[in-house]
Write a structure and sequence with these properties.
The structure is a homodimer of 187-residue chains. The first copy, chain A, is mainly α. The first copy, chain A, has two domains: 44 residues, Arc Repressor Mutant, subunit A (Orthogonal Bundle); 137 residues, Tetracycline Repressor, domain 2 (Orthogonal Bundle), CATH 1.10.357. Chain A is 76% helix and 0% strand. Chain A contains nine helices and no strands. In chain A, helix 1 packs across helix 6 and helix 7 packs across helix 8. The longest helix of chain A has 22 residues. The N and C termini of chain A lie far apart (52 Å). Chains A and B meet through helix 6, helix 8 and helix 9 of A and helix 6, helix 8 and helix 9 of B. Chain A binds a DNA duplex (30 and 30 nucleotides) through helix 3.
Chain lengths: 187, 187
DNA sequence: ACCTTTACTGACTGTTTAGTCAGTCGAACC
DNA sequence: GGTTCGACTGACTAAACAGTCAGTAAAGGT
């Protein structure tokens, strides 16, 4: 067993359940089944652990999403694939999602280079830029379209997480809401 | 000076800057210009303080929003007023908004009765229900429409906060995005 | 004049917690 | 068979922190 990963897993579980504070490093170590010192052997401070967990989750999410994208389709279809797979990912990784959510609103975010955050959004930004330039999407500020799409996705995600739908119903909701979104942003 | 309020003000400022943890009660008291014990005289625990702050902000927000709503208009106009005044409020109270955001994703929320949270959403929910029943809005699950609208508003808000627009430009963005939202949800 | 209550103080304490460190253990290289 | 090295341990400590408490001071009642 990779103890480094076991610590991340335990931290994720406990952070989501109790929050960053209220989760002593000692409990994380115990949950992971390693000694207290081992945690600090791999992650010099608690903050470093939190940041490492964030980066780990983000990159696993990105990797997983890109697997499912087949380029060469129309912009509409590529966007739909992005939309769908990001929602599918959060549904399959609810705990991870809740951690990222908590992380984003905390003061930790400032400590991560803005670069690290941007890296994950860049492809989506490029896609939107292209859509506007090709007049497939409404002519507006790229950032604004991006946040509009982001907000929509965020809302639908919260909805799906709060309800306990079957796989089929989930897919249906995703289809339906994408049509609504597309109707709003297409030129 | 009302020391009870001074403590809330100080707590708000420090919580947003450093987060709940990393903000010792001693610093809050110092910032508020009161003795350490005074804080615990008014708020028996730190958790109680956090909850009191949340309720204080929420009710001030609700009060402020309802002032600006004139009933009797069409459903579309009422929704636009809600939309506009909630965005205006968060723009004018960025710190408060960031606190609420942080609070919502933390474990504290669970401690507040779900009732307290619902109380503030109820009027908006009712409005949407009515809109669906009257066939002014698309026939879909109320909760889903609600989260769609919420997500949209959340996104636009983030956009407005991140940019430093003039009052006029802000109003223009609000108008524009409402039209997009309305186009998406109207029947 | 005396009592009661309420707002407020700040020094103090018990506990919790992040982080340390001296040392164990097995593997791998010489 | 000895030496080095990286992974790992867990008892320990210094600091920080939430919450206490004995007491003050002023207002208001009787």
């Amino acid at each position: 067993m990779d103890k480094k990963q076991l610590i991340l897993d335990a931290a994720l579980k406990l952070f989501v359940e109790y929050g960053f504070h209220n989760t002593p490093t000692s409990k994380i170590a115990k949950e992971a089944g390693v000694a207290n010192g081992t945690l600090f052997y791999f992650y010099p401070t608690k903050d470093e652990l939190v940041k490492a967990l964030y980066i780990d989750i983000k990159s696993r999410m990105t990797a997983c999403m890109y697997e499912n994208i087949q380029t060469g389709s129309s912009l509409r279809d590529i966007m739909k694939q992005y939309y769908s797979s990001s929602l599918q990912w959060t549904l399959a990784h609810a705990t991870e999602f809740r951690f990222v959510e908590q992380f984003n609103t905390s003061a930790y975010l400032k400590q991560i280079a803005a670069e690290e955050v941007k890296k994950h959004m860049q492809p989506a930004m490029d896609l939107i830029s292209k859509g506007i330039k090709d007049k497939v999407l409404k002519p507006m500020d790229v950032d604004m379209l991006f946040t509009l799409i982001g907000g929509h996705t965020f809302g639908v995600n919260q909805y799906l997480v709060s309800k306990q739908f079957s796989k089929a119903k989930q897919t249906q909701v995703i289809e339906e809401t994408f049509e609504m979104l597309w109707g709003m942003i297409k030129n």
